[in-house]
Specification:
77% of the residues lie in helices and 1% in strands. It has helices at 3-7, 15-26, 29-41, 45-73, 77-84, 89-123, 135-144, 146-165, 168-195, 200-208, 217-230, 237-243, 251-279, 290-300, 305-339, 343-357, 359-364, 369-379, 395-432, 443-466, and strands at 389-390, 393-394. The chain has a two-stranded antiparallel ribbon with strand order 1-2. The radius of gyration is 22 Å and the shape is globular. The chain binds phenylalanine.
Length: 469
């Protein structure tokens, strides 16, 4: 944690490498799976507008704050907060725990995506793919059969472990430098294909023409939660990536670039999904199943549908892996920096434990009769399944709720308290501007948001969400 030890600490090989890794962390299932289904469920364009507004006034300033805390701390979240003030090292512990918990359940969906990529890949070589009318069954079978749910979850986690084992520049940076540009190219191609279908304009209307009667505090709350999740804010990922950034690289510029790329990916996902969904006359409101159930049926109705399906799910796979490696890196960085654990040992232990714990949420999604029957045939007792249902929520939903609704907003609040109240205006701004060397026209507005606006907005949404909104 001392200045000396930071010399031997890993750093990004290039600025582009950092940017791609941070963009890789931000762009993930949140953009390609969660954003479209929230848009679909919360009234289309209204959600998009609220999301964009909150992203601009809260997401971007807090991104700058989080990267700055990391760049200043030059170490993992725990050490960075501690360096600012030992009183707030608990913020770091909370971030670590939150990152770890998200990683545990991220692998569930990561596994589904890996499975779908494979199904579509094999369909290009004569496999059945996802035949018409069968998307629901295939989805149910995947989440209900422990063999499928567990093994693909493990394959996904293994891919992440291998990349993080490779180290910061040879693993994470190199992988993202390939995956992120590929992701944008594929999304762009798919968006053009989707918008060229007959009947696509109904989808564009839904996506772009707001119906303001659908606006509410609860929709705003959902949008703010999505801003945090999508930008990987509030749980130490951007802090950790920022800590590998050299002091002379501008956090300010990155704090605009990362959300811009992230938003482009989310918006593009909408341009891929909604025109296609409407063109084949389906509904966009199927919630979490939109990507896994509705889309495959859409692909079935399209020319070269299997190829489109394969490209789509490979893209989602890239996005998910690049986010999961940032979650793993947060906890790995803690062990490397605080406990002096070698990277290999830290990555293997954290990765394997997260993968094993992740089996619970991976299994918890299949609770239908098919799941029970399969589980009883494999393990004898269908009842043990209920032991992974806590508080009547499936392990997956529980983790999603605790992290998304409680820990991420609290993590955001921690950023506001640290930047706005503990570091204070002078210190925070002098780090961002490098003692006035770099111009920062909006410094006053930025600080006012961090100190007052963002924490108040987060508190309102937080209390509203806890009271069941
Ligand atoms: N931002 C990622 C996504 O959109 C999720 C994530 C959250 C990754 C927090 C890292 C940290 O999917």
């Amino acid at each position: 944690m001392s200045k000396n030890s930071s010399h031997s600490r890993a750093q990004w090989g290039s600025h582009f490498g950092f940017l791609m890794a941070a963009v890789g962390s931000a762009i993930g299932l949140g953009n390609l799976w969660r954003f479209p289904y929230l848009v679909g469920s919360y009234g289309g364009a209204v959600f998009v507008i609220l999301y964009l507004v909150l992203l601009l006034i809260i997401g971007v300033p807090l991104m700058l704050t989080e990267i700055t805390i990391g760049q200043y701390g030059k170490t993992d979240p725990y050490g960075s907060y501690q360096r600012i003030s030992p009183r707030i090292s608990g913020f770091g512990s909370m971030a670590l725990l939150c990152g770890f918990l998200i990683l545990c359940y991220y692998g569930t969906i990561g596994g589904w995506v890996t499975y779908y990529s494979m199904v579509y890949l094999f369909s290009l070589f004569g496999g059945a793919g996802i035949p018409e009318g069968k998307a629901v069954d295939i989805f149910m079978e995947m989440i209900s059969r422990p063999g499928i749910a567990i093994s693909w979850h493990l394959v996904f986690m293994l891919s992440c472990i291998i990349i993080v084992l490779g180290g910061l520049d040879k693993g994470t940076e190199r992988a993202n430098k390939v995956m992120m540009p590929a992701l944008f190219i594929i999304l762009l191609v798919l968006a053009f294909v989707s918008m060229s279908f007959k009947g696509a304009t109904a989808g564009l209307d839904f996506y772009l023409k707001p119906d303001f009667s659908k606006m509410s505090l609860s929709v705003a709350g959902e949008a703010l939660g999505q801003v945090f999740f999508s930008l990987s804010l509030g749980m130490g990922a951007m802090l950790t990536y920022g800590s590998y950034l050299k002091a002379d690289q501008s956090a300010k510029r990155n704090s605009v670039l990362i959300p811009s790329f992230d938003t482009m990916a989310a918006l593009l996902a909408g341009f891929v999904i909604f025109p296609a969904v409407f063109a084949v006359g389906m509904e966009p409101t199927s919630g979490a199943g939109l990507v896994f159930v509705t889309l495959p049926e859409v692909f079935n109705k399209l020319p070269a549908g299997n190829l489109i399906g394969f490209l789509f799910f490979v893209t989602v796979f890239f996005a998910a892996v690049s986010s999961a490696i940032s979650l793993l890196e947060v906890v790995v960085a803690y062990f490397i920096d605080q406990k002096k654990t070698p990277r290999k040992k830290a990555t293997l232990s954290v990765g394997v434990i997260a993968a094993l714990l992740g089996i619970l949420p991976a299994l918890s999604q299949g609770n239908g009769p098919l799941a029970k029957a399969t589980i009883s045939s494999l393990f004898g007792s269908p009842e043990w399944m209920s032991s992974i249902r806590l508080l009547n929520l499936a392990a997956f939903d529980l983790l999603d709720y605790i992290t998304g609704r409680i820990m991420l907003p609290l993590g955001g609040l921690a950023l506001c308290i640290t930047g706005g109240w503990i570091m204070g205006k002078e210190k925070l701004l002098s780090i961002i501007t490098k003692d006035g060397e770099r111009p920062f026209k909006l410094a006053g507005v930025y600080f006012f948001i961090v100190k007052y606006i963002a924490p108040i907005a987060i508190l309102i949404v937080f209390i509203q969400a806890l009271s069941g909104g």
